[in-house]
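[Q] Does anyone have a clean structure-token version of this?
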Amino acid sequence: MSKPIRKLTVKEKHEYARYRALVKERMPKSRTLLRCVLAFVTGGAICCLGQFTGDVGELYLGVSPELRGSFVSVVLIGIAALLTGFGVYDKIGRIAGAGSVVPITGFSNSVVAPAMEHRSEGIVMGVCAQLFSIAGPVLVYGITSSVIIGIIAWAAGALGLS
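[A] Here you go.
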């Protein structure tokens, strides 16, 4: 049997109201909408940069339409790695949040940042050992889940369910 909840006294109610007012006064204002807009704009800007890179590659550098996606990926990964090396990508990430993490540039940042952080420990034990400390689990789970989905799709096709 549960214990009945006792009623608060007038003094306790007043104290609780003061506490709630203090919490409301000191609690930081929510900036969720602003952060969502910044993430959207930044992610969109990265995608526009990718589109522009593909167009330039195709029109001026002779990149074939079949290789366009690979070309764009390599260029964006390189730009993000350079920006991470110069400390700019972290500033973008603080402003943009998920808008800078979700695209392929976020993957590049997650590989380069730990390697740079541990470079003082040497090439092998520092850079190489820490290279995939953040991106590694993402790769493992991504590859594993894609293999599982592939097996499910194959089984569904073999059973005539697709």
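[Q] Thanks! Anything notable?
[A] Residues 32-131 form one domain.
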